[in-house]
Design brief:
- The chain has a domain of 57 residues.
- Helix content is 62%, strand content 4%.
- The chain contains 6 helices and 2 strands.
- It has a two-stranded antiparallel ribbon with strand order 1-2.
- The termini are far apart.
Length: 134
């Protein structure tokens, strides 16, 4: 900040300056409540059995959107900000449908009903504790 600018800012009344600073902090800082919500949603999002977060907060939504757009389209936040909003919405919907389709595919894949174990001499064989289809 230049000396001239600092002098101009110094002439602003204290209550008005407080209001400016409060608004600035609201836009730039993460509150304790927001931090708690982010932690809870991340615990769900990154858990082994997690299937996503319903009604995601701004941070989780931004993380998922930027992650997907970066992976799919090699877009960083500047490119994403320059994207027309309609195009962003359309791409976000397509990525969302792709994630759902991949999730359905993953959960519908047939699971093996036999396990292979190593027997004597290093030879592998099906486990006797698992039934095999006939």
């Amino acid at each position: 900040m230049t000396d001239k600018c600092f002098e101009r800012v110094g002439r602003i009344s204290a209550p008005l300056m407080d209001t400016f600073l409060d608004k600035f902090e609201d836009r730039t800082m993460v509150s304790a409540d927001e931090e708690d919500e982010i932690a809870k949603q991340c615990a769900v999002l990154f858990s082994k059995s997690g299937r996503g977060v319903s009604d995601a907060c701004e941070a989780v939504s931004l993380f998922c959107t930027l992650g997907n757009f970066s992976e799919k389209f090699n877009m960083d936040i500047e490119k994403l900000a320059a994207l027309p909003y309609r195009h962003y919405q359309m791409l976000r919907l397509v990525v969302s449908h792709e994630v759902s389709a991949l999730s359905r595919e993953k959960h519908s894949a047939p699971k093996a009903n036999t396990r292979i174990i190593a027997g004597r001499g290093g030879r592998s064989r099906p486990s006797a504790g698992i039934s095999r289809p006939m």
